[in-house]
From TrEMBL:
Protein name, per record: Formylmethanofuran dehydrogenase subunit E family protein
Highest rank taxon of the organism: Bacteria
InterPro entries named in the record: FmdEsu_dom
Signal peptide start and end residues: 1-24
Keywords: Signal
Protein species of origin: Rhodoplanes tepidamans (Rhodoplanes cryptolactis)
Residue ranges annotated for the Formylmethanofuran dehydrogenase subunit E domain, each copy included: 52-149
Gene3D superfamilies named among the record's database cross-references: 3.30.1330.130
Keyword Signal found: yes
Length: 190
């Protein structure tokens, strides 16, 4: 290989490294409420939601919002939350739970996430019970049935980012009610 070929190969490798390296660099985490997430982090949430669920709609964004709120309120680290989702017969699917799964990192494979056969309740679109395993603290999120028409209409927005922004613009009081349930016993340590 001549000097010229080595120089071109080195320049090409450097160009690839410079193009790929920023993609591998971690994005600084946003520590504020999920509703104020900057666009670069929002786009990561949207991408992950689309990959996990097969598309990114308003219900995924709502689930991420609920899961992140619980994680923050409970001060939970990854793998410390146990989630049970209750759906309404009027809900088209329990899609909210996929967003909750993404935000809490709970999963069926870890036996920390399940969809109950029991209904959410007469006036509810969905209900999420999230327990912090180390402390036993438990939060219940009730999503009112009245929010469904608005969430459905948000899905007319053509982009995931637009759907995210629309869901995050809904007031917390309109989106959900949160209450702390009596503490459950902490999970036993293995």
């Amino acid at each position: 290989m001549t000097f010229r070929h080595r120089a071109l190969a080195t320049a090409g490798a450097l160009a690839v490294l410079l193009a790929v390296e920023p993609l591998a660099a971690p994005v600084a985490a946003h520590d504020g409420p999920i509703e104020t997430t900057p666009p670069d982090e929002r786009d990561l949430w949207v991408s992950l939601g689309a990959r996990v669920h097969g598309g990114f709609g308003s219900l995924i964004a709502a689930g991420i919002r609920i899961g992140d709120d619980a994680r923050r309120r409970l001060g939970a680290a990854p793998r410390e939350l146990d989630v049970t989702y209750f759906s309404s017969p009027g809900a088209p699917c329990p899609c909210i739970v996929d967003g909750v799964m993404i935000a809490t990192r709970a999963s069926p494979g870890q036996a920390t996430l399940r969809v109950s056969d029991a209904p959410a309740g007469d006036t509810l679109f969905g209900r999420v019970v999230i327990r912090h395993k180390p402390s036993g603290r438990t939060l219940e999120y009730a999503v009112p049935a009245a929010i469904w028409p608005r969430l459905r209409d948000i899905n007319k927005e053509t982009t995931g980012a637009g759907r995210w922004d629309a869901v995050m613009a809904i007031s917390a009081a309109e989106m959900m009610t949160v209450r702390e349930l009596p503490p459950a016993p902490p999970a036993p340590k293995p």
